[in-house]
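Q: What would this chain look like folded?
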Amino acid sequence: MKSTKLNEVSWSDFSELTPIDKAEYLSTDNKIFHMLLAQQFNRKQLDEFGELATRIRKIAKTKEGILFLRSQLAHKRAMLYFTQPSTRTFLSFTAACQILGFQIGEVRNKSTSSEFKGETQEDSIRSFSSYFDIIIMRSEIGGLAERMAWALSNSERPIPIINAGSGKDQHPTQALLDIYTLQRSFEKSGGIDGKHIVFVGDLARGRTVRSLSMLLTNYQDIKITFVAPNQLQATPDILELLACKNVSYDLSNNLRSIIPQADAIYMTRIQDEWDTTSGESAKIDTSNFCIGTKELALMKSTAVIMHPLPRRNEISTDVDSDPRAVYWRQMRNGMWIRAALIASIFNCDKDIKNY
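A: My prediction, written as structure tokens:
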């Protein structure tokens, strides 16, 4: 496996680039090597990843198919380096790696690693690269995955890094599974083009909203509405990106007035782990930014409700049995699309397509 052009640029120069310019350094031979930013995906790749994920999902329905998939990367090892709490993302990546046959190692707490003794993160990553063939990492530190990818690309053993969540910045593979969920949800109604996507909740601090908004700019005639209390409304970086891409968007604090127009409603929880003072988020009234049976009655029959999970009280459990609630499918989709991404990074996507 070839590395990227990251060994041709200094960290200080790379860190100053825009995300779009950084993306050019993260691929090789027109294929993703390090998966760090939502800006790395284009429309063609999103379509191809969706098709590959569906292919993997169908192959895995038989014992013979599962054994075939496990044979693809049975000679490889994956390190899951998750120092920020995670359930779904961690298990989703674990399952994706198991589908492809990886042997897996994990670090889920700095207190159980040599970082507790003062080892730098760069040295930890270099150590992992001695034993493993890919590192999937999640951190509360924004930009850490980029810095570690640069460090490995300038080492004697450059291996891929996948960003499984980076501070408040990005969560590109969550956005990828969200797109796959939208692809599947609208496959009989013209696809994602032309749809109205509504984001609700903590939009200022939600990295899933930021990353998915970026990916939606790859589609035609998309309309986006951000519904949130003023304190949690979408931030200028997201809005400026949409404006630059000529994507139509609105801001609102009235969920019920928007629901009848929506094709997809993307709910989010309050991200109070990012509070700067204790109890800061609890002072914000979010009671009008929830979905229950009354809100369901306002929705189109063809609309869907999504959520990256975990949820709190922003979606009533009474909604779970409604066929428009696709957040459990959304979670399962993460396993398939992440397996597709990893298969592509290791160049076994063609064999899977031809099976």
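The chain is about 40% helix and 15% strand.
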